[in-house]
TrEMBL record:
GO terms for cellular component: cytoplasm. Thiol-specific peroxidase that catalyzes the reduction of hydrogen peroxide and organic hydroperoxides to water and alcohols, respectively. Plays a role in cell protection against oxidative stress by detoxifying peroxides and as sensor of hydrogen peroxide-mediated signaling events. Pfam families: AhpC-TSA (PF00578). Belongs to the peroxiredoxin family. BCP/PrxQ subfamily. Monomer. It is an enzyme of class 1 (oxidoreductase). It comes from the Bacteria. This is thioredoxin-dependent peroxiredoxin. GO terms for molecular function: thioredoxin peroxidase activity. The active site is at C39 (cysteine sulfenic acid (-soh) intermediate). It catalyses: a hydroperoxide + [thioredoxin]-dithiol = an alcohol + [thioredoxin]-disulfide + H2O. Keywords: Antioxidant, Disulfide bond, Oxidoreductase, Peroxidase, Redox-active center. The lineage of its organism: Bacteria, Bacillati, Bacillota, Bacilli, Bacillales. CDD domains: PRX_BCP (cd03017).
Length: 148
């Protein structure tokens, strides 16, 4: 099985999270930007369904290139109940292969393409979801995890 890239990132509180913190199954989802419509939809859907993930012993982490302060504001504003990791230089996003060309408001830009990984405690990628739909994301994840 393919390995998830090694990482050492701060969460919104400045705590360091690394691959060693991944216990059991972990959802690591990459999203473009805090407080944007699609990213907010996705984060709030995860928030509203976090108990379903907890019941399956699955941890959720969001990753974007935003700052710790931006993550804190996003969490407070939307009452998020999971950690957001700071990848300001997109080092993890690049290593995970989720940087690409996309169209934003009619302009071609390069950045994080919405992608989610399910990683096990051995740092192996169990499943990768590409070009994730913010509205259907949680449904897809829970369906896959329950089939386990």
């Amino acid at each position: 099985m393919e390995q998830f890239p090694q990482f050492k990132l701060e969460n919104q509180n400045g705590d360091i999270i690394t691959n060693d913190d991944l216990k059991g199954l972990t959802v690591i989802y990459f999203y473009p930007k805090d407080n944007t419509p699609g990213c907010t939809t996705q984060a709030c859907d995860l928030r509203d369904n976090i108990e379903a993930f907890n019941d399956l012993d699955v941890t959720v982490y969001g990753v974007s290139g935003d700052t710790k302060e931006s993550h804190q504001k996003f969490i407070e504003k939307k009452d998020l109940n999971f950690d957001l990791l700071v990848d300001e230089n997109n080092e993890l996003a690049s290593a995970a292969g989720v940087i690409g060309d996309k169209t934003v408001f009619g302009k071609k830009v390069r950045g994080i393409v919405r992608t989610t990984f399910i990683v096990n405690e051995n740092n192996e990628i169990v499943k990768r979801f590409d070009k994730v739909s913010p509205k259907k994301h949680v449904e897809q994840l829970l369906e896959f995890l329950k089939e386990g």
